[in-house]
């Protein structure tokens, strides 16, 4: 991805880029895409009613990951308290979605893949929060 490159060019960054922030942004966008695809795959399953909670958590996680990734990409000005709260919400959504997908992982490969993406994103959220201070 070009996240590091584009952020480094921002006048506010002056070439300095937090590796934890870059990883968080990349994982958040990847997780949003994976959760969206997983929700769609869940909708195509024969026993879709059994996947209702998984679909809901996938869609919630996709939305918060996309929003958090966008907010993390912004370098002009500062809104650290809101960014921190958003990354915390992203981590919580990833953990909830990942836990739910894990319960379906043996039966549905898309849920296994999604659970792994959610774990990576939650870990990236934790690292970004530690980096923010």
From TrEMBL:
CDD domains, alphabetized: DUF326
Quote the Gene3D superfamilies the UniProt record gives.
Answer: 1.20.1270.360
Q: Which domain of life is it from?
A: Bacteria
Show the InterPro entries listed in the entry: Csp_YhjQ, YHJQ-like
In Swiss-Prot or TrEMBL terms, this protein is called Four-helix bundle copper-binding protein
């Amino acid at each position: 991805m070009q996240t590091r490159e584009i952020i480094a060019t921002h006048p506010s960054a002056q070439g300095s880029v937090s590796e934890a922030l870059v990883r968080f942004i990349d994982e958040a966008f990847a997780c949003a895409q994976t959760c969206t695809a997983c929700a769609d795959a869940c909708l195509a399953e024969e026993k879709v009613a059994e996947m209702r909670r998984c679909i809901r958590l996938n869609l919630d996680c996709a939305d918060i990951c996309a929003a958090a990734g966008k907010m993390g990409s912004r370098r002009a000005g500062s809104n650290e308290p809101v960014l921190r709260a958003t990354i915390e919400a992203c981590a919580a959504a990833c953990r909830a979605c990942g836990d739910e997908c894990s319960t379906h992982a043996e039966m549905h490969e898309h849920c296994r893949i999604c659970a792994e993406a959610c774990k990576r994103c939650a870990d990236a959220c934790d690292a970004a929060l530690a980096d923010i201070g």
